[in-house]
Automatic annotation (TrEMBL):
Name recorded for this polypeptide: Low-density lipoprotein receptor-related protein 1B
Keyword annotations: Lipoprotein, Receptor
Pfam hit, one: Ldl_recept_b
Source species: Macaca mulatta
UniProt LDL-receptor class B repeat ranges: 70-114, 115-152
Domain of life: Eukaryota
Gene: LRP1B
UniProt xrefs under SMART domains: LY
Amino acid sequence: RQVIVENVGSVEGLAYHRAWDTLYWTSSTTSSITRHTVDQTRPGAFDREAVITMSEDDHPHVLALDECQNLMFWTNWNEQHPSIMRSTLTGKNAQVVVSTDILTPNGLTIDYRAEKLYFSDGSLGKIERCEYDGSQRHVIVKSGPGTFLSLA
């Protein structure tokens, strides 16, 4: 087996961009989101590049890509200000999408057709849906704490 990238820190989330043959990952060790093209012989290949670098208090966790809209979304386990964030796939225009009534956002997936985010909160025991900009939040399921750890 071939090792594609070494010394990546504590990888929490991983996503693959099919058209670009590029892996994106979150690292809580470096508080960053990094990308790397798997086949480095491809024209326009990205060598290991941090596209988002956050503060020490931020802990990017899970990651989801919308290749068609050129967007990536991720959960941030900042103890004081947990959130769901988004930016372009190059890390530009980073912004908070959800920052209220959220504690441990540990599941995240995208409905590409409807352009909606689905996310779970393990501490609050719920699954929610919202628009890409965080508007129109709707609780889908509410259960006990620790119930929802991930989404697919």
